[in-house]
Every structure is written in C-alpha cells, then in structure tokens.
Specification:
238 residues; alpha/beta; 7 helices; 42% helix; 15% strand; binds NADP nicotinamide-adenine-dinucleotide phosphate
C-alpha cells in the first residue's frame, strides 16, 4: 500500500495502564497508534481512542507468542506501509518475595526480555526505513544496578523483575550501539511509580504523568540522546 502520511507508533501492552495512556498521548500528538494486546483486549481501547478522534487501531499480540510477533510486519505493511515508533511497554511482575521459582523467573524473562527482543528484531527492518525511528523500552528504576546496590529497591527488589529489567536495559544499550550512525534512537524509560494494576493505588504518579517519559523518548528530535536510561529528562544511572 501507499505509505501512511502520519508517523505510526506500535505500543505493546496497550489495553490498559501505561501502554494505553502512551497510545493516547502519542495519538494526541498526531501519530497513528497501533494498540497491541493479547486475547483481543486492544479492540475496545482502540475504539475508545477513535471515539476521542484519534487514529487508533488494534492488533493481536501476546509478546511471548512467536506467531503473533511474526505477523506484525505484514500487518503494518498492509495497513500503514511504515513504522516509526516502537514502545516495548508490556511487562509483568510475577515475584513478590526473594524465593522465586525458576519457572517464575523464566516466565518473567519471556515477557520482559525475550518478548521485547523478538518484537524489536521483527520490526527493525521497518524501523530502518523510517526517517527517524524510535525504540522505547519500558524499564524501571528497579532495573538499575546502581539503585538496587544502594538499597533503593526496598521490598520491591525481587530477583525476577529487577534482573529482567536490568537485562532489558542491556539490550537497550547493545541495540543503540549497533544502530549508532543511523537515524534510529533506542532508549530505556523509567515511568516513575505509577497508579496502575502493577504499581498499585498508593503510587504517587497518575497514569498520565507516568506515560510522559516514554512519550518524550518516542518523539525525540534528531539531536536527542540514544542508548540512555531516563525518567522524564533526567538521565538515570545504570
Ligand atoms: N506502574 C509502575 O509503577 C511501573 C514502574 C516501573 C515500570 N513499569 C513498567 O511499565 C510497564 C507497564 O506496566 P503498568 O504499570 O501499566 O502495568 P499494568 O497495568 O499491569 O499493564 C501491564 C501490561 O502488560 C501487558 N502484558 C503482560 N504480559 C503480556 C504478554 N505476555 N503479552 C502481551 N501483553 C502483556 C498486560 O496485558 P494483560 O492485561 O493482558 O495482562 C498489560 O497491558 C511494564 O513494563 C512495567 O514493568 C511500571
């Protein structure tokens, strides 16, 4: 098909929480947004965004499902002919204490590390064709070796979630190095502690506030950073 005139962003885990809000804010900035979620859960939120006048479409994506991932490039080619922004937002926190089973660790890594890696690998050819491709990996301050080694994680510093986000951080750096000299920028985001199902009701930040870091990184200008780790404009230590 003809190339879509608008920039196109795909956001994973976009049925609720931060992912849905990132999609909303990118849509409000004039991008066409593709809400990716599993089990048909993106359909209703995409319709909700369209009712708000935004250019939104749903796609089926379990980030641990190889067939769903393999279908993404064709879906994007057919409907838009382009992809400018990928936000790897979907994530799980399955461990609540220190004694985490290997199976729980494996499940955590499938969703938080292997999924984003495979999705990025599948979509990189399209992103390379974009004039200013942007990849945002939704990490957490809990993935910071510096923060955790200084005791900043408290009871949230469980082995599975923290190490999966640290691995995602390293994938961010490795990919940014690999793409140095191209127009693609790759960065990791810490949204802050945000009121979502994952963050809990006592979190200090609203979803709208929490989405801002990923949105900022998705819209970085040509002279913006790559291979960094940010909360809002603040550069975080790995
Ligand atoms: N909230 C915070 O304070 C906070 C802080 C730091 C980092 N983060 C990160 O922000 C991201 C979004 O979290 P949130 O706070 O918005 O939590 P949330 O409301 O629980 O949303 C998590 C999203 O990830 C999706 N997801 C999980 N596993 C998936 C899979 N296998 N395939 C497809 N989608 C999957 C969920 O879909 P389902 O509804 O289908 O499960 C949901 O859309 C996560 O990566 C999280 O680690 C959050």
């Amino acid at each position: 098909m003809e190339k879509h005139v608008k920039k196109v962003a795909l956001i994973t885990g976009a049925n609720k929480g931060l992912g849905l809000e990132i999609a909303r804010q990118l849509g409000q900035q004039g991008l066409a947004v593709v809400l990716a979620a599993r089990h048909g859960k993106a359909n209703a939120p995409a319709a909700e965004l369209r009712a708000q006048g935004l250019d939104a479409r749903a796609v089926e994506l379990d980030v641990t499902n190889a067939a769903d991932i393999a279908a993404l490039p064709t879906f994007l080619e057919e409907h838009f002919g382009r992809l400018d922004v990928l936000v790897n937002n979907a994530g799980v926190q399955l461990d609540t204490g220190f004694d985490v089973s290997p199976d729980t660790l494996r499940q955590t890594y499938e969703a938080n590390v292997v999924g984003p890696y495979a999705i990025t690998q599948a979509l990189l050819p399209l992103l390379r064709q974009a004039p200013a491709g942007r990849i945002v990996n939704q990490s957490s301050i809990l993935g910071s070796l510096t923060a955790i080694s200084q005791g900043q994680g408290g009871s949230w510093a469980t082995p599975g979630y923290t190490s999966s986000k640290a691995a995602l951080n390293m994938l961010t750096v490795v990919l940014a190095q690999h793409l140095a000299g191209t127009s693609i920028k790759v960065n990791a985001a810490h949204p802050g502690w945000v009121q979502t199902d994952l963050g809990g009701a006592e979190a200090p930040l609203s979803v709208a506030e929490g989405a801002q870091t990923a949105v900022r990184l998705a819209l970085l200008p040509a002279d913006g950073p790559t291979g960094g780790y940010f909360h809002n404009a603040e550069h975080l230590p790995w």
